[in-house]
Write a structure and sequence with these properties.
mainly alpha, 9 helices
Amino acid sequence: MDVAETHLGGGGYLGVSLEEVAKEVGVSKPALYYHFPQGKEELFIAIADRALEHHREGLERAIADHDSGAAKLRAVARWLMSESNQDHPMDELRDLTRFVSEQHQVKLAEGFFGSLYGPIHRAISSAVESGEFSENSPELLTWAFLSLLSGMLQVNNIPAGPSLPEATRTAEGMADRTVDLFLNGVLP
């Protein structure tokens, strides 16, 4: 699975050859089919499941260490920003839905929903219920936060300029600034 995941990150789903994966692992292609009878699709669904579980556990651990909603969101952003620097092909795994059966599309959607949306939604819902966050739809806030983070993950390694402080160039600095924007907006 590790070798196939590396290949996925390098060439996307269509660029992965089970024959190359088997050769690199040192097994025959039929041996891969023994473990993944449905072939490439089943293998990558298993990889997605493993990656999503890793993200769910990581987010829940990060959130558990904090009491306030703001601190939980900061921990989420820091964890996701630091994870984006690891070699997990999350964009490619998200892209799998274009290539797999409807049954697996549903499973992937549920996995992404539970591993990313779920922990963040619980943190935001709790902060809204406690009055820490203003009365808002926790669903809307969760999607807005995820959207902002997703965009910031794409520009995580931008060079510092006159209006971008050096401290923002680190994953932690970018995470903190992103949460500040979400919580406080851009108005003075």
